[in-house]
Amino acid sequence: MSVRTSRFTSLSGLSIEPVYTPDHLKDWHADQDLGLPGAFPYTRGIHSTMYRGRLWTMRQFAGFGSAEDTNRRFHYLLHQGQTGLSVAFDLPTLMGLDSDDPRAQGEVGHCGVAISSLADMERLFDGIPLDQVTTSMTINGPAAVLFAMYLAVAQKRGIPFSQLGGTIQNDILKEYIAQKEWLFPPEPHMALIVDTIAYCAAHVPKWHPISISGYHIREAGSTAVQELAFTLYDGLTYVDAAVKAGLDVDAFAPQLSFFFNVHNDFFEEIAKFRAARRLWAREMERRYHPKNPRSLQLRCHAQTAGCSLTAQQPMNNIVRTSLQALAAVLGGTQSLHTNSMDESLALPTEEAVTLALRTQQIIAAESETVNTVDPLGGSYFVESLTNRLEEGARDYFRRLDGMGGMIRAIEGGFPQREILDASQRYQRELERGERSLVGVTEYVENTQRPIPILRIGSEVEQEQVARLSDLRKSRDPFRMAGALEEVQETAACHQNLMPALIEAVLAKATVGEICSALREVYGTYREPVVL
Amino acid sequence: MAVATAPLRILIGKVGLDGHDRGVKLVARALRDAGVEIIYTGLHQTPEQVVATAIQEDVHAIGLSIHSGAHNSLFPRVLHLLREQGAGDIALFGGGIIPDEDVPRLKSAGVQMLFRPATPMQEILDFVKGLHVGH
After folding, report:
1. What ipTM does the predicted assembly reach?
2. For chain A, is the Cβ count within 10 Å smaller at the N or the C terminus?
3. CATH label of the domain that carries residue A249
4. Among chain A residues, CA nearest to B47
């Protein structure tokens, strides 16, 4: 290869020096900025022993077709050594629509599993010991409804809520910013989230009621700095709402969790995890003075970057994912999903998802990177990047404060526009040849080697529609209508909705019915056009 | 090449329920920067809404992005509605996560072009300018 003439910048556009020395860490103090693992400001990790004590949770996001299809995949993954479950719901479920809604046509079971009723949820977790396995559910708009279903399944099996562990994503701010699957306007959505936080604090203490997510912000095209800034600022917005609703910060902050992307820039990503922990600890300390140190600790899940995968030469994605997974481990994540090589084409096949899981297992078992905590701590380069990411995020914090907070900023289109601009900058750099993608801009092969693709048949939709039709005929209509009325009244008078939602799902009201009852009270959201 | 008499008008939008609008917005921006008049519908549009907007706005073509796996039902529905409402002359193209093996069937149904992930923007611009000549 000829002498390189390209600019040396991180994937997020930070300029990178040829070599890093103590001069780059002049204002940096190891005792204040680094500390020890398990101690403030948690730069090196939230636990003192990290992976020496316990490895990260290997949690592959899975969901497709019917509840039975996904249940089989769950049993398969647990049998293969996976240590936690993670549910992907289909788009109609994410949008609070039943499988037989006209808008759901063609989408049932495609991007995840179709869940419309408590009966679907019971089939999804058939044979899974809910008191032993932790379950993460990627659900946002209708999160409280799906959470009510999970609780109802446990209740029917006689499992106390106190033994349930898991997470609902339940992060609506990043939906308005990036992922775009919302049901209601911001204010009632925020109130509903505070309800789930309060309910968990009182009744489901091991549950994480929210997973504040940068993943989708990054997938929408943001830089690492934007991902860090918007995610942590969203987190502070939720804390603020819960505290304003009268909750003690220590009653819920230890159960908050975060979710980050792991993209291609190896060191920048490692620095992002470290900066996230430090910035969160410092901001929580400064703003809320919690007494429980766990309220200062940023726990997180990580997923390798779906948007980094290419449809061209899909086997290359295995290598990309391995590097990203290693960065997440060196960054100190608590759990990890590794993408499958075929995900730029479709949902993963069993073979592809097994390989993705094996990638994590190889890092854990063979790379010997898990023997010491924060192995890159003290590196001039990594500490300097960590500082710059924290500074970049603080700069955004000031701008967002100046706009009156995140909800006002979203209504003005600010984070959306920043992300779109960053995405366009990257696209142009790629097209000008300033960035490379192997198999796409370089080393292109004209002959394609197709890989197997998972197909979702239309029978999933037909079965779901038939089941819903049976359900609507078989349930007690008076109990169902009464439960939905109770949901609406509780929503209208701003009481905690969780008990009413649990009763509604037990009365066999569907996700779509409950969400449309809530839409009548809360209204709908129309996003500002940002182009 | 024919001399442009009126600016090209293109409806760009998302049908179905997925919210992945990064690609579609980049395409919309690039076309707008190239002088094309863009009608951007935003997210979560039904085929009925898209066709109604296309007819009302008198566009030359519709470009749709689908990442949800529902392309095999949504593209044909848009085509059907266009023909049903006498607007079969409006060209339909698209992009997103669409497996190669689905492409021939969608093209023979009448979708003029489907762009794969990582298509260079210039290719999309050239395609759209080519539409203008034929219209």
Report:
1. 0.84
2. N
3. 3.20.20.240
4. A103
